[in-house]
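Q: Convert this sequence to structure tokens.
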Amino acid sequence: MATPEAISVSYTDGIYRIYGTPGDDPLTGTAGKDDIYGRNGDDTLVGLEGNDSLYGETGNNSLSGGGGNDTLDAAGGGKDTLDGGTGNDSLSGVFGGNSSLAGGDGEDTLQGGGANQTLDGGAGNDSLTSGGANTLEGGAGDDTLNDVYGGNQYRDSVLRGGAGNDRYLIYTERANQLQIQDAGGIDRLDFTDFTGYRITTSPTLSLSLSRGNTGLARQGTSLVIDTNEDGIALATDVEKEVVILDFFGTSPTLAGTGFIETIKNLSGTEILAANLSDASTTPTPTTPTPTAPTPTAPTPTAPTPVAPTAPTPTAPTPVAPTAPTPTAPTPVAPTAPTPTTPTPVAPTAPTPTPIPVAPTAPTPTPIPVAPTPVFTPAPPVTIALPIALTVTNAPAPTGSASGNIGSNSNDAIVAIDANIPVYGNKGNDTLIGNSENNTFFGGKGDDALFGDDGNDLLFGNDGNDTVIGGDGNDIELGGKGEDVLYGGDGNDAISGDLGNNTLAGEAGDDNLYGGKDNDALLGGTGNDFLYGKEGNDILTGVDGVAANPGRGEIDTLIGAEGNDTFLLGDATKFYYNDGVDTATGGGDYALIVGFNPSEDILQLQGAPSTYQLGASPEGLPAGTAIFKKTSGADELIAIVQSVSFLAIDSNSLRFV
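A:
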């Protein structure tokens, strides 16, 4: 099938839509709102001012948003460079490899994917999420850095929060080594492994750990975390011991001999804590007794929403499929209790007093969470800052999610914080959003993702998933499997990726991308852009169950490779009828690009004698126009571009 070679531009509803070619294109937008599509090739996309949407697609692309709140999407897997510029931007390189994402000024959201990526939030309170051996730079502001994807093929990620009070979210099921470097502020580290034990330390760094052999050590100005048993600071019994060295002290000279804590047998059989100094006199040691409250974590009851049954799309022969109208379940999300986390009272560091190595160590006052505190003699060192410690048992998962990461079972997760992505992990999961801008990753299994209101990023990943965007301008990615994706109200971008998928844009000006297999693309109401890509696809830009499908719409339909079917009518009505017999209807029609008469089909309603072909009306894109005969002026139905021969009685036209 021939693919158009010319750059095309359209303007509807105050939006310029610019489409590139299969080659290397320089595409620059306007000072208003632009939607720019690079297509194939190594493209350069520049949005300028306005709230723009830039889609790099395949190739090694450069995307620059400029001013405004922009959306930059480089999902083609190339080596891409994304620069959001000023404004609150959303940058996505989920399928990219070796890509660079820079948010610039503003409160930006950066979503990486493959290995060897660099994410730089810039100034503002940014959210950075990535997996693989990547570098995440928060920059100035209170940032959230999320290194989510485990896997022992990923090594040596570096997270730098920069200035501000930053939060680090680490998913450590199988990851090897991370480096966290921070320029200041009061920071928080959430370190999760689903099961086992949790350790929390305070005051200036909030650290939560769960099961796994995890070590933290200072290397210069960096905090290094080892999560895969290769032992930065682990002692002899690596299965039961975690050592936290003095990564904030002034002289952590010997690994394992300095402050602060050694925790053995995390079931609570032994805790060793010591404040040591290097003097030569014989003092009476004073042991501070910290107040270590044990918080009781409330257990919220996750709702069990009923996920819709994903319809199995059937290619209509000869009757056009009717766009499904999903009824998104409205789960009643419980009011998440606000757990009250008590603030441990850090002990006042005593004035360093020399402690000689004595034959019998003094017995300190027991710490509430350990039954038998024991002090062990150690060589004299100097401490800089003590840390209050609390050790509690963390419950093992029972099939419901804890926090923002699901278990390996079938989870139901209700999003509460819009700034934290939610991961379903393994199992058939149900992820439910709210009125904020949610980010969901279904993981493995047949998942149901409900974005609700807000501009959501919904990624089904593996399995046969059902994805419903709801209101708002959503980005939906099906991933592997036979997926059904509904955009809902708003201007949505939906990609089926692998598998035979059904994509329904519904209300709004939507962009639908089919992927490699046989897909059904249903634009719904609004001025939609449909791109079937590979496979034998079915494309219709309208809502087939509406009273007047296509009225007031200008849709762009591109089949690309494969034997594609373009639906311009069904058994009861023809589409794009404006209802005015005195005009040709130049305000509503389908623009069909790359049509191959030897492979593709145009489906029309009625008899061949009720249609005629002609030139495009003046002022509209060039091509062969299809008119429906009426008692007055003939009604324009479609314009077919780049076709050398098309006849009413040809096999490429099917009448129902």
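DSSP finds no helices and 51 strands in the chain.
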